[in-house]
Design goal:
This protein is α+β, with helices and mostly antiparallel strands. 29% of the residues lie in helices and 23% in strands.
Length: 776
């Protein structure tokens, strides 16, 4: 029988944690295969250069070296470039510019860290020594790293045949209707903002281990992915073969945040070398290397305009976003600022019209792709900065301005001007709960007290709306194992979120099985044939539906088996609390015992109805998590130093399967957003293209002692878009926190005349903003 600790909506401690905390986790770099070799990537020290000479002869002869591979070696065996899997069209309907993304640089390097050669040896040290022995002559070229000026006349071209460095010029919305609303507006608020570039820095660096079986012609690739199925499907064509020739195994993963979704050069290189050398090959990034080879996030320069009528009602929103793609188009890069980002521009407000123009540009920098929230944090940041600026300019309280423009519950479902349809939401109730929890009415007194202590105190709020995404289907399989356990095979991939616990809770609830007897299996594309992976905060509502559908199949099979075992009609069999029984009697059988008896019959060659089942669930609708973040800060005007005094979040995630895990997810997201808001700053030298913030010596990350307790209140607003009633929660914390923190800083400094500051609001920038405002 199911124990109550695994019931739904219970704050169950994570079942995976004891294994991980005791050191029993198995990560990609822990994998050691017989005869394994080690690979090192030689990377470009220049942001832009022609390779005039590449001599590997000396390196190839060094002790322990098994192979040195260049672009020529890949080309000789027909290994193609890395694909962009999510292209977009320009406004005129023409396709985007899609220059090739070579696995190894083919005569030209385009960012510092661009792979030039792959060295494989008996040890990592021998491979590193050999990489240093490769002789490369570079003819350096001018580099361009700045997003805002990438399209300027005279700007250095990253790709000679891509005019103005313009990858795409994309639009969404009704431009004519938007212009008409602006024409009749009483007030227009304009703001120019920078959404700073982020280095992801997951606690576990990327790694890959590949082996090739010559007899079957199949590879096995061990890699820390967010779903091996996409990697398998993308890498197969690069080798000119069926993706089924690849088995991708993902062990434990120490953080992904979007960055581990993609197909990378190192996946291809290890697979190529393993086939070429006939031995397994491992590559594992060092932290400094990760700064140069992992996709990075954000990097937008955006102008937003908000049209307001005489009653303070929002009429229209108009945006122009320059989005840095880096030197190459990563797997999903064009999709992030376009479809993903603009889908939430309407936020929770009743705009009559919206028009957005997104310009993707190439620069001599590391490629940019999805990072926690993937476009939605950028759009929410813009909207909430605009709303606060409008409130100041018009002279309306910022809470009242938001409340006045929120879509009411009785307007659901609500169709937005950018093509989304919200199924549910009570935004005003969430806003009211947030302001009450934070004592918004009492803030003035706290601010006055801070001034008396020589500090500036500010209260910032941001109401966010998320739109979850991902594959349109998801799969689950339930097998009753011989050892008495129930194995649940899932098509998502945990990277630290607590999936195992949530899926155990769902399965225990559906089948009445003790959670201690349920095991979650994931991350093997041979054992699990299809899966959508993890991204877009999709896992629980997608995989949850698949588990629910598969559980129903198990129960239906169980009723048939129980009818045979209990000698009753199927129609007379009921199921409750893990037990099949004849309705109206005490005759019955436990589901696990029934599964065992049927398996025993099958093994003996007797007719049997096995309870094992697998189903693919259609994901017909996505979800729209939303909530209100409120941050209270104190600033020392002498130094610009900031203290986060209090942070409170009120979230609508629909029904929560495990509130303990959800609160942890929100707190982690808040920390990441706070890091972007005040600390993390990716800086490229404008002349050389060198990454100046290429280590933790120069790139600041948030630390635990910088935070108060993150207060999280979960408000359940009914959600009908999926049978579980859940909404995605994984990215929400990182969506709402940057605008809340920056709005708090501006509020704190408003008395000094400061009306704008860009992320990251470092102490130096805060101090400078105050000084400039005072001088003005």
């Amino acid at each position: 029988m199911a124990t109550t600790k695994f019931g739904l909506a219970q704050p169950v401690r994570r079942v995976e944690d004891p294994r991980l905390l005791k050191g029993s986790g198995r990560y990609t770099d822990d994998i050691v295969l017989p005869g394994m070799l080690f690979g090192i990537v030689l990377r470009s020290p220049h942001a832009a250069a022609k390779i005039s000479r590449l001599d590997t002869a000396v390196a190839a002869k060094l002790p322990g070296v098994a192979g040195v591979f260049t672009a020529a070696d890949l080309a000789a065996e027909g290994v193609g470039p890395l694909p962009c899997a999510a292209p977009v069209n320009n406004r005129d309907g023409s396709p985007q510019a899609t220059p090739p993304h070579p696995v190894l640089a083919d005569g030209v390097v385009r960012h510092v860290g661009d792979p030039v050669a792959f060295v494989v040896a008996q040890t990592a040290k021998q491979a590193r020594d050999a990489a240093e022995a490769i002789e490369v002559d570079y003819d350096t070229l001018p580099a361009h790293t700045d997003s805002a000026t990438a399209m300027d006349k005279g700007a250095t071209r990253v790709w000679p045949d891509v005019a103005h460095n313009l990858a795409f010029d994309w639009e969404i919305g009704d431009k004519q209707a938007t212009e008409a609303e602006f024409a009749r507006a009483v007030h227009v608020t304009k703001i120019d903002i920078i959404n700073n570039r982020i280095v992801v820095n997951s606690i576990e660096a990327r790694a890959a281990v590949a082996e090739f079986d010559a007899a079957s012609g199949r590879w096995t690739l061990y890699a820390n992915t967010q779903g091996g199925w996409m990697v398998k499907n993308l890498i197969g064509p690069l080798f000119g073969t069926d993706p089924e020739k690849f088995r991708v195994i993902t062990p434990d993963v120490g953080g992904g945040f979007g960055m581990k979704l993609f197909l990378y050069a190192e996946h291809v290189l290890t697979c190529f070398a393993a086939r070429k050398l006939g031995r397994p090959v491992k590559w594992a990034a060092e932290r400094g290397e990760a700064f140069l080879c992992d996709t990075q996030g954000r990097d937008n320069v955006t102008r937003g305009e908000l049209a307001v009528d005489a009653d303070g009602k929002f009429l229209a929103l108009r945006t122009r976003n320059i989005s840095n793609m880096g030197a190459y188009l990563s797997t999903f890069a064009p999709f992030i600022p376009t479809f993903a980002g603009t889908g939430v521009l309407a936020s929770v407000y009743g705009f009559k019209a919206i028009y957005a123009n997104v310009l993707g540009v190439f620069t001599n920098t590391v490629p940019v792709d999805a990072y926690r929230g993937a476009g939605r944090p950028e759009s929410n940041y813009l909207v909430e900065r605009l709303v606060d600026a409008a409130a100041r300019e018009i002279g309306i309280d910022r809470v009242e301005l938001r409340r006045r423009n929120m879509v009411p519950p009785n307007a659901m479902p609500h169709a937005t001007p950018v093509g989304k349809s919200y199924d549910s939401g009570d935004f005003r109730s969430v806003l009211d709960a947030a302001t009450k929890r934070m004592d918004y009415a009492g803030f003035a007194a706290r601010q006055t007290a801070a001034v008396a202590r020589g500090k500036r105190r500010g209260l910032g709020l941001a109401y966010y709306l998320e739109a979850t995404g991902g594959d349109p289907t998801e799969r689950a399989e339930i097998r009753f194992a011989e050892d008495g356990f129930v194995d649940v095979y899932v098509g998502t991939q945990s990277t630290g979120q607590g999936h195992e616990t949530a899926y155990v809770q769902l399965t225990a609830n559906n089948l009445g099985i003790d959670g201690d007897k349920i095991r979650i299996r994931q991350g093997d594309t041979d054992i699990i044939p299809v899966g959508g992976g993890t991204g877009g905060a999709r896992s629980l509502y997608s995989e949850g539906q698949a588990i629910l559908l598969t559980s129903e199949s198990v129960i239906n099979k169980g009723k048939q088996a129980a009818a045979e075992e209990l000698e009753a009609a199927v129609a007379d069999i009921g199921f409750a609390d893990g037990r099949f029984s004849i309705v109206g009697t005490d005759r019955g059988v436990d589901i696990v015992a029934l599964a065992a008896s049927q398996r025993k019959k099958a093994s003996a060659g007797q007719p049997a109805t096995l309870l094992d089942a697998a189903e693919v669930a259609p994901i017909d609708a996505h979800t729209f998590p939303n909530g209100c973040h409120m941050a209270e800060v104190e600033i020392d005007p002498e130094t610009g130093m900031l203290e986060l005094v209090r942070y409170s979040v009120c979230d609508d995630f629909g029904k929560t399967v495990n509130p303990l895990i959800v609160r942890g997810q929100v707190a982690g997201g808040v920390a990441q957003g706070f890091g972007q808001a005040v600390l993390e700053h990716t800086v490229y030298d404008p002349s050389s293209g060198q990454l100046l913030s290429g280590s933790f010596m120069d790139y600041a990350m948030p630390r635990a002692n910088e935070f108060p307790d993150i207060e999280v209140e979960l408000l359940e607003i009914p959600c009908a878009s999926n049978p579980l009633g859940v909404k995605g929660a994984g990215e929400a914390g990182a969506v709402g926190s940057p605008p809340a923190v920056i709005n708090a800083i501006i509020d704190a400094l408003s008395g000094d005349g400061v009306t704008h500051i860009d992320m990251p609001a470092t102490p130096e920038r805060v101090w400078r903003a105050m000084a400039l405002a005072k001088a003005a």
